Amino acid sequence: MNSKTSFICILFLCIAACSLQKSIYKNETTIEELRKNSNATVDNWENTVTSVDFYKEVPETYIPESGVRGRYALYDQFFSISALETIVGERVFLKSPHTDTPNYKSKTTFGYYNPLFIKKLEGNLRFVFENESFVKSMQAHYDKELKQYLRTYYLSYKVAANNEEIMAGYLAAISDPKKHEYMDGRIKGPSFYLQETFRDFANSLEKDGYDVYEAFTCPGFWVRRSIDGTADEFYALLNLTLQTFDPTFINAQK
User: Which tens digits make up the pLDDT trace of 29-49?
Assistant: First the structure.
């Protein structure tokens, strides 16, 4: 499935997105590791970008520079699935076709996120966020690398999340392997279903200057999160992130 590892690739979404509720999950080691790995990612960013061969490391896509897969390749040195599990102390997924390497070939299943992982991560990131100099140091990276992408996630939530009809259609599309065959030059199955479901949305965002590929794929993240029951938690993190790094945009939406 496309974007099954979206949460990993938009980890910086969570670095600034922290609950205001007092956390019972505060762990000084976790807080320090999140801060250290985040700083290392930014400090080594230019070297990472020049060293990653997208077409070798990001299979199963013709546009590796856009969307979640290319971003995972860039961020996984410090924020791979196994690295996050070690830092937070919980499994990222309750069940998943992924190992530490994302499985982009899976056609009949997708990752179900572990709510406890999200809660522990959120609780500890609240304390990371309290460090104003750290947040300030992340702003330029956010503006350059993540702002348009996270705006696309925000806008796609409204058309994709918690829609029972779309969720049922998607589950039906992944239930029959035969639907994944090429027919008339087009892929039938879950990717095709999501593409056609959100075609008008993607086209409208493209007219507003957004990456049309990301506008096609971001809604699928919310469909899957609606199915695994974590859409609202991720949306809360996204809102807080945008309020921190992109307040003009988020306030205009409201």
Answer: 888 888 888 888 888 888 877
Place of tokens 């702003």: 139
The DSSP result for 171-240, as a single string, is: HHHHH-GGGGSEETTEE-SHHHHHHHHTHHHHHHHHHTT--HHHHHHHHHHHHHHHHHT-HHHHHHHHHH
Would you say the pTM of this structure is higher than 0.90?
no
Structure tokens that stand for 226 in this block: 């609606």
Residues 112 and 228: beta-carbon distance below 8 Å? yes
Per-residue burial over 78-100, b if 16 or more Cβ lie within 10 Å, else e, is bbbbebbbebbbbebbeebbbee
Kindly report the length of the chain.
254
Is residue 93 helix, strand or coil?
strand
pLDDT tens, position by position, 100-125 = 666 666 667 788 988 888 788 777 77
Q: Residue 93 in contact with residue 111, Cβ under 8 Å?
A: yes
Beta bridge partners of 93: 113
Interatomic CA distance for residues 85 and 218, integer angstroms: 24
